[in-house]
Amino acid sequence: MSAVTDAVRIAAPGNPVTQSVRDSLVVAKRNLIRMSRIPEMVIFGLIQPIMFVVLFSYVFGGSMNIGGTTDPAVYREFLMAGIFAQTVTFATAGAGAGIADDMHKGLIDRFRSLPMARGAVLTGRTLADLVQTALTLFVLAVVALLVGWRTHTNFGEVLGAFGLLLLLGYAFTWVGALIGLSVRTPEAATSGGLIWLFPVTFISNAFVDSSRMTPWLQHVADWNPFSATVQACRVLFGNPGVSPSDAWPMEHPVWASLIYSVLIIVIFRTLAVRKYRSATA
Amino acid sequence: MTTIPTTTTPTTTNPEDVETHMPGAIYAEGLVKTFGDVRALDGVDLDVPEGTVLGLLGPNGAGKTTTVRCLTTLLRPDSGKAVVAGLDVLRHPNEVRRSIGLSGQFAAVDEYLTGRENLQMVGQLYQMKAKEAKVRADELLEQFNLADAADRTAKTYSGGMRRRLDLAAALVVSPPVMFMDEPTTGLDPRNRQQLWEVIKQLVSGGTTLLLTTQYLEEADHLAHDIAVVDHGRVIARGTSDQLKARTGGERVEVVVHDREHIPTAAEVLAGFGKGDTSIEDHTRMLTVPVTGGAKLLAEVIRELDARGIEIDDIGLRRPTLDDVFLSLTGHVAEVKDEEPGAAAGAAAKDRRHKKETAK
């Protein structure tokens, strides 16, 4: 078995940034192959937001007062930015469960024993999740158009709104990564990744007019990073229900959304990579 | 390998090592690691000369896996020194990772990737070029008898195939130093045999290997040297023969046909034995340490026959590593819980079952 012992040449350590990018792409490719082999996951990920679109717009539409009208058509246009934003944040749970599963199966140990860039396993995972999120958003946008959602701005602004949504989703996958590395089982990562999303997405302007909330709750909603992205999307889509609040994130939603997302990425990426370095299955 | 009847103590080093002052391919000194108030490693010393196999033998929770994790950069010890392939593990972890292969307790392969995709990915993460990784994956698939299953997802593989794939992944860069943590745990006897063959071939090519196992037979089979670990310390070290010699050599085992004959048989054995006779009532088995070999065995048989004791089975037994463990630690290779807090009873039961099936 001489071939086993014939030393295979390993490339000398190159530029750390190049290595990091390359390793991240190798891991992202792995996760994308996985996704293509478990299409159920992608399909379930699609059904849920579509169900929300249909349920919210037909059940709630008509009883929701948006900008002084209870016209269901107005609510439907109002709703979509909220559903889009909620959908991208749900990618958190997937990222968390995936990473917890890798830990559980010993794959994280394998990766950690390889001479690869330290953050690449997590970056690769979050990048693959971003691809899935983009796919989900695309399908969801088509469904939204079918139920009557329209944009009233130019193409660039609409694209900008989707860009902000993807950035928010990417930021939240880093929160998921940290959760996945912190819990013992993939099941815990799934529920742990979802539970906190309910208050975050509901104490916001996503589904109701936040100006009708109790003052302290409205305050929370106005400063909620999630609300900033929703508000930014409504502005960029030209959809109704833009909050008249004078809280800074509501007055400058695009900037607020950008700043919040970048902050979340910086903070949670740092924490997650640190956690990864000492991860023990 | 010559068997020097020696009183090896854990701290005694090989004469060659003293002469050259060269640490082995794997070297550890005073490794300590605590988890909360559990002292998982309590000063582990190891020295594995290049091209040899060290079997790290001990029950669950003895510190085997923690030792491997410290040596493979997965865990940072609280104190102590570790050198692998001539590199300081604590100071140059990334360089160490280039020189080692690790095959863990679980087959760490992505089950949704094909065998080929798994190996290519690992190759690329070892910083091989995509094309090189591809060529290498093909070679390994061929070598490990996985060529036919190369393009099936690992999910469809049998347990033995997954282990082989895992081992192949650890060998992608033909690392000079290999670590295998309980490589055959959970495998059926046939697959275990196959994996042993693979490991033997690998070692014959000059790879230095540290192998942990709770199967005494496995250490006996594969390792040049054995280090017995218990409670986070190496409590004995030597070749299999040296360790066996320490436990006092041979024993006579008798199974009597009739339970009533046990006291008489015990009396007979006491006359020949060099120590206490142990009696297992339910199996009607008596065991006594002896010296004198086959000649003595014949005498024992004659004496038992003269007293009218019918025997079902009798034999001269050389000590197994189980006996070694018993005499070193005062307890059998008992099963303890790896993780504090887990249901101890259930886990112990499960392990016992595993052990039985392993034999």
UniProtKB/TrEMBL annotation, chain A:
Superkingdom: Bacteria
Membrane-related topology note: Multi-pass membrane protein
MF terms (GO), sorted A to Z: ABC-type transporter activity
GO process terms (BP): response to antibiotic
Keyword line: Antibiotic resistance, Cell membrane, Membrane, Transmembrane, Transmembrane helix, Transport
Bilayer-crossing regions: 38-58, 78-100, 121-147, 159-181, 188-208, 254-272
Annotated ranges, domain ABC transmembrane type-2: 40-279
Cellular compartments annotated: Cell membrane
Protein name per the record: Transport permease protein
Annotated organism of origin: Streptomyces luteolifulvus
